[in-house]
Amino acid sequence: MRPEARVDASLEITVLVSVGRHPVTGRARRADQDARAVELARGVADASVRLLHAGGKEADSEPALRGYLGMGFDALTLVEQPEGADALPALADALNEAPPQLVITGERAEQGEGSGLLPYLLAERLGWPVVSGLAAVESVENGVATLLQALPRGQRRRLKVRLPAIVTVDGAAPAPRQSAYGPARRGHLAAVPGSVTVDEAWASWETQPARKRPKRLKIVKAASARDRFKAAAAKAEGGGGQVLTDVTVEEGAEAILKLLKEEGVLR
Amino acid sequence: MSDIVRRDPRKAWIARNRLHPQHREVLAELGQSAGQGATSEWMGPAGIVRRNPHAVGFMGPNGIKRIDRSGVQQGAGGGAAAKSAAQSKPLVEIESPAFLVAVVPDMAGGRLSGHDRDLLGLARQLADADPNARGAVLAVVFGGYNREGGGELKEHGFGEAGVDRLLSLDDPRFDGFAPEARLGALLAVEEAWTPRHWLVPDSRLGGADLGRRLAARLGERPATGVWQLEPDATAELGWQCTARGAAATLDIQRPLPRITLALEECAEPVDDNRHAAEALSLPQELPSPISRIEDLGQVPVDPAGVALAEAEFILSAGNGIRDWDGYHTAAEVLGATEGASRVAVDDGFMPRDRQVGATGTWVTARVYVAVGISGAIQHLQGIQTCDKVVAINMDPGCDMIKRADLAVIGDSAEVLASLVTMVKQQREEKRDAA
Amino acid sequence: MLDILLPILIFAALGLAAIGVVRRVRLWRQGRPSPVPLVKGLASVPRRYLVDLHHVVARDKVMSNTHVATAGGFVAAAVLMVLVHGLGLAEGVLGWGLLAASATMFVGSCFVARRRRNPPSRLSKGPWMRLPKSLMAFSLSVFAITLPAVGLLPDNFFEGSVSWVLALALSAVLVWGLGEMVFGMAWGGPMKHAFAGALHLAFHRRAERFSTRGGEGKRSTGLKALNLDDQDATLGVEKPSDFTWNQLLGFDACVQCGRCEAMCPAFAAGQPLNPKKLIQDMVVGMAGGSDANYAGSPYPGQPVGEHQGSPQGPIVAREGKALVDAETLWSCTTCRACVEECPMMIEHVDAIVDMRRFLTLEHGNTPNKGAEVLDNLIATDNPGGFAPDARMHWAADLELPLMADRGEAEVLLWLGDGAYDMRNQRTLRSLVKVLRAADVDFAVLGNEERDSGDVARRLGDEATFQSLAKRNIATLSKYRFQRIVTCDPHSFHVLGNEYGELGGPGMPAQYEVSHHSTYIAELFDAGRLHVKPWKGGGVTFHDPCYLGRYNGEYEAPRSVLKALGIELKEMERSGFRSRCCGGGGGAPITDIPGERRIPDMRMGDVGETGAELVAVGCPQCTAMLEGVVDATAEVRDIAELVASALTEAPEAFAGAAQQSSNRPQAVEVA
Predict the structure, then answer these.
(1) Which residue in chain A is spatially nearest to C387 when comparing CA positions?
(2) Distances (CA, A) of B42 to B10, B21, B35, B47, B48
(3) Per-domain residue ranges for chain B?
(4) CATH code reported for the domain at B303-433
(5) Cβ neighbours of B343 in C, within 8 Å
(6) What architecture (CATH level 2) is domain C528-645?
(7) pLDDT tens track for C522-549
(8) Contacts of B292 in chain A (CB under 8 A)
(9) Contact B61/A259, CB-based, under 8 Å?
(10) Do B402 and A240 touch (CB under 8 A)?
(11) Which CATH class is domain A4-204?
(12) Whose C-alpha in A64, A135, B371, C468 is 20 to 30 A from the C-alpha of C474?
């Protein structure tokens, strides 16, 4: 229940957590990537994990933050800020006060600008290296962490990074454990006042719910009218797919092979 | 091979005689020697062009005959024509640009990706906006792997993609995951030429990472997830952009900053002109920074261990599979991740975490091969987002066939075995060739 | 000599038993407090035993008579023995009574012995195998020592030197009998069930289950709510002592007859659950120790003797083994077949959900898809994670009247989460068609509806359940309706039986809820529906657990099918013994592997009847049974069958139909 490594912890990890937003209903929740970051931190042997959040303690964000506590934590440090304030200086101060060896966070926030810049700016300010897209922390020895970075198609790359460092995780990191109601309810939100720098640029921008992006049309720039007509009229695919009945096994296999090659999934 | 055309009068005679029992074979033979797929036209012995109207056209995917009269089908050497077309595009040269638009393409696999080309299109929009003061597009390309054995760049199409200036940095220290070294190079570019715009693809593990590093180092607040640009006289750089925010649920309208991380399809790729792609080099040696991140290389990953939701190519097994060993072999040879229908899991042939469908995992594979899966509604729901679905099934009436882009009706074990043989054969040929 | 020996023996046994009783009571008192009416409860024992318990036992006539003879004989013999031999009141009738009682008991014990000669696998062995001998020892020895007392043998029969030996031998047998029957009862032998069972009946946590002089007992199947406002209250049951004391008492009442095991669908499917073993494990945990002495069928696939527990130790370990594995608890489909069968009226499902609550609320360890489903319920109010405003997409063309527009209606049609499921949408469409054909004034909540909370509650997430329930209650309180009709028995059960506790001041949550089969049956009775005669093949009906066992509705679906002209081919296990489809209690979500699948077995039951079609009345059952590969029968909801048989009212009935639509409740339609 308690972070097992509270005693005799050799590695201190801080996980930056944010208030997420459910993609369908927009309700506040623990952010998926941040929850994965917490899970990743829990998976590191002999580490004491601290949760850190900068932001307000509004009615709907509290259950979301408690969602992280429900993953088995006694407390979450809440650097209190009014809405619209820049989280960066507040977080940097908090990290400077008690510098951990490793900071783990999600790739980008589910609310606000969600530019994914925070880990980079934080790293810049603290002078730490930053590594993105992590799938696992393999080991930490002598101030050097061995990490697995997620590449597309489930591929992995092994990296070594000197600590202290900031790392971000994305969807390839292990799925977060269930947030349990009991620990979430009991956990303590330790609020500390944070510095307030109002993000004026953000306030000046216009925002609206995301529009559906237009689907790109196949524009054929052809020399002749015939080619243009052909391109406009051609709709060879679509409708039902191709069904090969009464073909030999080889023909069937060949057709499949052709498609696999076209799609470039065969290596 | 000599260029002398040798004629066999007997064959020519058979080719003319449509009633001859060997007529078709001979036609095919003659056709092949002419380098065409279909023999609809050949030179008769008297020097007269003979036509077979029945051989014109090709079978469309719906089984209806299609006749293409644009001349492409008649095999006028498509490659050559395309090449000449590229040659024929007007060359645009910008001698003294008013400003620079720096683009840092991902160059995945050493070639410009679609995303890179879109970005270069966007760069051209920025560069060409004012015909009186045109900017030049500078592409900064990293990595020794961009060159083939002979030292030539793998990618030839920089000019066609709209690059005016090309800075190719191929020191080995940029290879792999080397964000710090690459950042150093970009800073040198900034110092040397101070581009007005920096454009970076907002692509995972490519530009998204590097662009944000650059922005953080330069102290610029970049626009991320940009997908649209509009001219706006009131803005500092003269442009207004629309960017995705809040996990792609928000559109943010804001003036375009100096550094832009743009999404795919943010602009049309360049198509009309050729650009010079004139090679540049940095005015001074790059300092070698101390790297705190060390790339130990890619870790071999067993495709079978890849999470289903993440997998790109899934070979999924269902109730119709009898030869499980053959199936597993096929998955291994094809390098596909294994999936399963509920029934295959319930029957204990596959583990539960391999179940695809509404009650299992929702998959996002680009190619999904369903072997012996009839296609229960829950299963089809789970593969909704798959790009191409291939079905191998005995029953031509099942729902999976209706969903599939390509369906092969037949014994799955035999088809898979044949597929495995072909893939192995081709790999060997490739190895021999290499 | 016996005159001296007998009182000593009897009172010694009673004394030891008293010590045992105190010990046993202290074991129970480890549980959490739960107030019970002490005197009233004790006073109700005879009635509860003779009426309610025997109602269950009497399903097996031979065993029931055996038990009456043995138990009745024993109770009479024990009381009379104390009077006759303990206090020496051997005059007249008492002695003869004792003789008769012990003789009856002996006859009963002969039947017990016959039962034990080739016991079915569901019966526990071990100490239970010696019970018939002990019963005989007691009854025979009591019979023998009573013979002189009534004068059938000379008074001094046991006084000669030969008789001395005889007397000693007899006393030895009596000691054995007393030991088992009196001492063992209080110290944990098989006879414990008599003592614990009687008190269990007296202090049962669902007193309303029992009949009173006023009338039949009510079905009491709704789970009891957790008090979430109390920050210090334990969330569910972590260790045996977290059960209430009368739950612990209930576990002790188990006779290990294994009727639950024989009925349990998870056990039959080879999933690691056996309700009998679970209750015995709780007894082990209450007293502390290992399950090595358990002598019945184990959890399938799990050998006995590897688990142990203590009253203050965890029941389910986070890692490794404790008293019970989590898979055992998650295998349950909450079908209540075990509770329905249990002659001791033990509440297995309550205990399982109590333990699940702890696993979900404290451990955060709902297996497989459980966590995802619960997250979806929290974020989107439906288990599939679909957009709440897409709930009515299936009915875009039906123009269903919305409560939000109407404000009131005679019938509130509760759609349930089946609204998102393409299969169940067919059922819903059929139901709407039927309601329209009968001119029913109904309306739906539309997008205001949420999941009823059934799945969340069965998965142990009481917090999410209560949150959903309270919001649903608030929505329902805005509108006026006479009753709720739903085609989802799970919603039916939750709305009807479990929301009541959660209503607030000014917001009562007592609704009249009907399953659609009930409502359609009423429409038929009122002559508001007209159907073509049935032309299909053989039909059987699968009773949904949450309709049948949970709510006692066995008749309405059958009468609807009868009205359609269908003659049912009943399955062997139907009605209150219906076998679960495997879809309840979140079992498809937690998905604990077994050797077989429960729906496959159920479809096998259907196949045995030779029916070509199985009628169901529950979206879960539909989904589970339709998921069976190579099924022999098609699956149709009752609403679908009715809708496809609908016709216009024939001329002859036109008048009647007119009349019926003039009934007062139909006036509101206009």
Answers:
(1) A24
(2) 15, 19, 11, 9, 9
(3) 9-86, 91-280, 303-433
(4) 3.40.50.1220
(5) 629
(6) 3-Layer(aba) Sandwich (3.40)
(7) 999 999 999 999 888 899 999 999 999 9
(8) 129, 161-162, 165
(9) no
(10) yes
(11) alpha beta
(12) A64
